[in-house]
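DM from R.C. (forwarded with permission)

"hey, sorry to bug you on a friday — could you get me a structure for this? deadline for the figure draft is monday and I only need the backbone to look sensible"
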Amino acid sequence: MKIAVLGTGMVGHALAGKLVSLGHDVTMGSRESGNPKGEEWAAQAGPQAHAGSFAEAAGHAELIVNATPGTVSLAALAEAGEANLNGKILLDVSNALDSSSGFPPSLAVCNTDSIAETIQRTFTEVRVVKSLNTVSAPVMVDPARLPGPHDIFMAGNDQESKSAVSALLQEFGWAPEHIRDLGALDAARGMEMWLPLWLRLFMQQPQGKMFNIGIVSE
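My reply, with the result:
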């Protein structure tokens, strides 16, 4: 599959690298063609890896991953261009974390809205699916690094799109029974509001230790 990963940070690198290793044709997108981080990644990742602008990456892709910070995601997607986004699945892994008041950051969007819903309202022809935003980048692409069963969540308005994202998550190693479909895209509010608690848990972890949550029921 031809996939665009928008964003050159840690999350973008983790997802793009894993997707290439799985045999996908991946373009890492950034604000401008020739971005050093993108070009360096593409040179090291092999012939299935490419780098370009947001618009070039999205135009090349069948599926788009938004790995930009949630506070700038709308601007990044606007640069990608509606014509390059329309009709495509957009896997949104972003969190709208605002660090302007220090650490831990607060959420710029919460309670009655989410960044995923904002993206969907702005780009109405894009099929937005929210997932992977509740774990750190290494766990996103390698759930087996944590012992025992644990869960990842998913929300979106289009079932066919969620099925495609679920298949991609299974390629990453997520077991189908631990991919929790929470329903329509408004469930992204809860997924994004998990981040303040996640950050507090992260601050309590020994350095370098990964973690996640699992649903336990009768």
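R.C.: lifesaver. The CA atoms of residues 22 and 171 lie 8 Å apart.
me: no worries. The chain has nine helices and ten strands.
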